[in-house]
């Protein structure tokens, strides 16, 4: 049952991540909204309020301070990178996340290693011609990958050592971040600029709230997925999601692409398929003997 739940939460995480990335990009394109501190502040306030209605909190915030610091760096670098890069190139470089996650694994299988090689190679092929266009953007995404990998491992550690469940971790993380995000929004004048009539329209507030809600769903599904799966499984799911978003940006957002980007996507996708096949085999090996025993018992 645990493996079935793990697979379900991987799919849930992938879907939430897909919707969140597109909703953020829509907010920036439609309304020219670039206030990262305000968006994160609103998202974390909304997250904390939702968590208050969903369950208990048994740990103090000090248990999650380091995690919150890493998570903040991950989120901020990711959003800043997405602001200044097109979706296809952003997702291309984000696929190297699996390399950072894999390097932090204590043990690994040859099949996982081959998946990492294919996915990373595909990302390099897709992006090598464009690396000289935006050094700052690429640096931000690489930092985002590093902090993301660290956050995944720290989240797993907190769940294992401190028995902090996904909802509790989400609540503590939001409480830790809110004061610093408020200071950042005030110091950067984002709080003042946000109160202007430009951003007080009903259409904007609905879109703004939907992005914040998707942020909550993404964080919660990430924690759930990480509780039942290894960080590398999350990285693989993230890679598949990035490929789908890149394809979506080509067909529906009319972003430019070339043969090299397509070749890189295909190679990365092969790596994801390789891992997925191995994972399905592992689940079958666990559940097929159980079903065989049930049949034998019925025959007896």
UniProtKB/TrEMBL annotation:
Record membrane topology: Multi-pass membrane protein
Compartments, as annotated in UniProt: Membrane
GO cellular component terms, semicolon-separated: Golgi apparatus; membrane
Protein's GO biological process: transmembrane transport
Major site of localization recorded for this protein: membrane
InterPro entries: TPT_transporter
Keyword list, A-Z: Membrane, Transmembrane, Transmembrane helix
Gene Ontology MF annotations: antiporter activity
Record's keyword annotation contains Cell membrane: no
Residue spans crossing the bilayer: 6-28, 35-55, 67-89, 110-129, 135-152, 204-223, 259-277
Segment forming the signal sequence: none
PANTHER family: SOLUTE CARRIER FAMILY 35
Protein name: Sugar phosphate transporter domain-containing protein
Species lineage: Eukaryota, Sar, Alveolata, Ciliophora, Intramacronucleata
């Amino acid at each position: 049952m645990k493996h079935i739940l793990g697979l379900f939460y991987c799919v849930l995480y992938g879907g939430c991540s897909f919707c969140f990335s597109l909703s953020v990009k829509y907010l920036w394109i439609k309304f020219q909204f670039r206030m990262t501190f305000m968006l994160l502040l609103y998202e974390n306030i909304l997250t904390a309020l939702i968590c208050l209605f969903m369950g208990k909190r048994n740990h103090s915030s000090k248990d999650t301070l380091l995690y919150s610091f890493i998570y903040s760096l991950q989120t901020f670098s990711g959003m800043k990178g997405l602001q200044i890069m097109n979706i296809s190139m952003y997702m291309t470089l984000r696929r190297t996340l699996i390399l950072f996650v894999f390097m932090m694994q204590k043990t690994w299988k040859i099949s996982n290693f081959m998946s990492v090689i294919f996915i990373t190679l595909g990302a390099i092929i897709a992006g090598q011609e464009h690396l000289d266009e935006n050094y700052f953007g690429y640096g931000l995404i690489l930092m985002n990958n590093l902090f993301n990998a660290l956050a995944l491992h720290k989240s797993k550690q907190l769940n294992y050592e401190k028995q902090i469940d996904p909802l509790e971790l989400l609540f503590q993380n939001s409480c830790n971040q809110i004061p610093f995000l408020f200071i950042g929004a005030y110091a950067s004048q984002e709080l003042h600029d946000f109160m202007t009539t430009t951003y007080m329209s009903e259409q904007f507030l609905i879109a703004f709230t939907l992005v914040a809600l998707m942020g909550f769903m993404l964080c919660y599904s990430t924690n759930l997925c990480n509780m039942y799966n290894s960080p590398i499984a999350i990285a693989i799911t993230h890679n598949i999601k990035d490929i789908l978003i890149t394809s979506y940006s080509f067909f529906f957002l009319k972003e430019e692409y070339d043969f090299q980007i397509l070749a890189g996507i295909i190679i990365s996708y092969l790596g994801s398929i390789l891992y997925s096949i191995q994972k399905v085999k592992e689940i079958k090996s666990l559940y097929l003997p159980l079903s065989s025993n049930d049949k034998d018992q019925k025959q007896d």
